[in-house]
Amino acid sequence: MTTTRRGAAVLTGVGRRRGIAAAIALGLAEDGWDLVLPTWTPYDRRLGIGGGADEVVAIAAAARDAGAAVTLVEADLAAVDAAETVFAAAAAADRLGPVRALVLSHSESVDSGILDTTVAAWDRHFAVNARAAWLLVKRFAEGLPDAPSTAVTGRIVALTSDHTAFNLPYGSSKGALDRLVRAAAVELGPRGIRANLVNPGPIDTGWMDDAIREACVAETPAGRLGTPSDTADLVRFLLSDAGGWISGQLLHSNGGFHVG
């Protein structure tokens, strides 16, 4: 059976096969989306928990096997011109449909608190997690029709977090992302663009130790950690025809983490 092509989705954050973005990429490929994957391998090397160019190539190959046209583009999202780089690569790509979706799964995430965060770390977190997100949303919307529409013309999904203490620049910049996406739902909604946030809760993509795993499971009524596929399933729904009436929401896909 041939899958109906849905256009292209720009998906940030693909770097590791264990990562959430990798699961989203493969799920969207199966659903008929072509993919533009901005990557930045120096970040994966800096974190030291896997990833890199070989894994990105493998993820792209698996998405192509699922029927997607895939374009890889190296882009440091801390750079002011990164959004233009990404969308120029999309425009130049062969076999790629029009960009109809933007999924923001990237982040700068280096732990620090009020007393030990540096100005440089603060600025980079906000450049990557907030400013780059704004510029990508802006460039995405500029590529869609600007006339009023009651039909769904485009979709934005951003992955967020409720981290605060001891992860100050990350949590603060994710808070800015939340406001940005909700603003997009209001400002761009009359043009047919749906914008939502997904908080995946604790998912072990290589950063947890045993103590963190045990603590997170203990606070999750569902009795297990989330998986990248759990998050990908919700993103796939939001990008599906069935998800077209949902907008302006922050959705928790976390097995009940911290509910009690």
Task: Describe what this molecule looks like in 3D.
The chain is of the alpha/beta class and 260 residues long. The chain has one domain (7-252): 3-Layer(aba) Sandwich (Rossmann fold), CATH 3.40.50. The protein contains eight helices and seven strands; from the N terminus they run E-H-E-H-H-E-H-E-H-E-H-E-H-H-E. The chain has a seven-stranded parallel beta sheet with strand order 3-2-1-4-5-6-7, with helices on both faces. Strand 1 (7-11), helix 1 (20-30) and strand 2 form a beta-alpha-beta unit. Helix 1 packs parallel to helix 3 (53-65), helix 1 (20-30) crosses helix 8 and helix 5 (119-142) runs parallel beside helix 6. The radius of gyration is 17 Å and the shape is globular. The model has no long low-confidence stretch (mean pLDDT 93).
